[in-house]
Amino acid sequence: EHLTQSANNNLRNSCEQFLLSFVSQLILITHLEPTDVLNVIPAMNLLFVAGRVAFWVGYPVHRGVGFTLSHNMKDYFLDYDYNVVVLDWETPASDSNYFNAAFNCQIVGAMLSYFVRTLVSMGVNVANIHLVGHSLGAHIVGFCGKNFTNPKIGRISGLDPAGPGFWRNDSRTRLAPTDASLVVVTHTSGGLIKWDGSLADVLQMSGYVGNVEPLGHYDFRPNGGTGQPGCNRSVTTFITNRFKGKANESRNCNHNRATVLPIADRGLKEVDSCQLIAYECDSYDNFYSGKCGDCGTDGHRCRPLEFNLEYWLNDDNII
Hints:
This protein is an alpha/beta fold. It is 36% helix and 13% strand.
């Protein structure tokens, strides 16, 4: 028995060290210590606060935009007394070949599930775990969720899940509704066609950053899920930015909008403010034509854009 326990401890320690060397670090932030950046492994047992847990997987935090997005996201969840764990996976994400980084999502997701199981072993209810991922991170949290079947992870939020490398219609190789009890996806850059502007501004030259397929129980598509207002990546803008060396700015604007819209309800608390409400519709053509403005007798044909935790944490609203 003693030898078995020692073997298990050695295996656990080796898994932790390999994970740290591969993903750089996991950062734990709680509402008790919201400004500290703490490595999860030494801090977990000391500072973890019982309750809900949100994992955020986006751009590696060492990259400027990723750090900003991570902080905006963690502030939102701290307002609701979540523990927030930010996954920094800079090493596997930094491969110059995008498809290698995409392949690494399966490995990082499996490793993330190891830490989720650690939390569960500490008494965290798996139903109180919320995995949030942007771009490739959306598929990472999906791969993590696939390791929990009975019971399942409580909730996954996929923010403009990456398209290239994940177009295959196979739930085993990308984010899928079966990865958690509730999977909600927001699409903001999933196509080549934009729904407004002149003919020259319609084609999205750097399009298909996001995934066009339905990947969750609920799939939100703001402005059709393609180009977003204020993000010009049209033919003319694309060519202009190429000469200015700013091609990535126009592409990322649409893609990153998925991380801004879900937390916008923090600033929309006034009764007369514009609310982010989505209407059930079979196509954006029909929505654009005004054919999908009915919320239904029970109101369930309309949903507030996530996160809106006051709504989505109420089980009565989930049908």
